[in-house]
Design brief:
Length: 231
Amino acid sequence: MVNLGDVSILPRPIILERIREDGFETVMAPGVTSFSAVAARLGWSLTEMETPLHIIPASADLDRALQLPGTKVLMKSGSAIHETVQALERAGLLDRAALVADCGLPSERVFRDLREIPENVSYFATTIPFSLTTTCCATCSRKTAAAASLPSSRAVMGYYDGLGLTSTRASTFELAQKTRKSVVLVVNARAQPCRSLPRSRALQFRPESGIQGVILNGCTADELRRAGCRA
């Protein structure tokens, strides 16, 4: 049976069970899920350690579903695109969402601004509102605040590279700006402190970078001194 995506997702396992009941032998061959392909097309990571991932059909109660922690993937959202956009706007996630229709097909279309989606978007559309930065910020702040009087936050993506690697949206830089926090870069400088230090300083090319210090991990005290750092 030819199948789009992975055979274990959505109602396809039920179809296989019916085929088995008719006496036919079946084998499930794994495939790439549509939401994994969409995330790759957008250049986004769907989740990380301790961050849940929710796969949500367009027919679900979106106002409730979008309040779940972690990343939300809205499947088949093309059939209810206007309702999806409205729910994302109410949840404050519209500016952080993108949609890919017919991912991997010749008719593939990518929309990074959901306000520009036409009326005739394909039924095979997947929407991902990116909210990992917010989740990490809240989780790490709670953990740190319980152990110290100085709360900290951890972000994802690159320092300036945000969604789709085309803007600073959802970048560490944006998180620092919105929370008005100073930034300390932690760099893996094992065996190369002299090279890592100028690279880290290069990130301060913007006056409003917020970077106040750099920690070079994986170096000995002698290596740090030779690099002109305080051990």
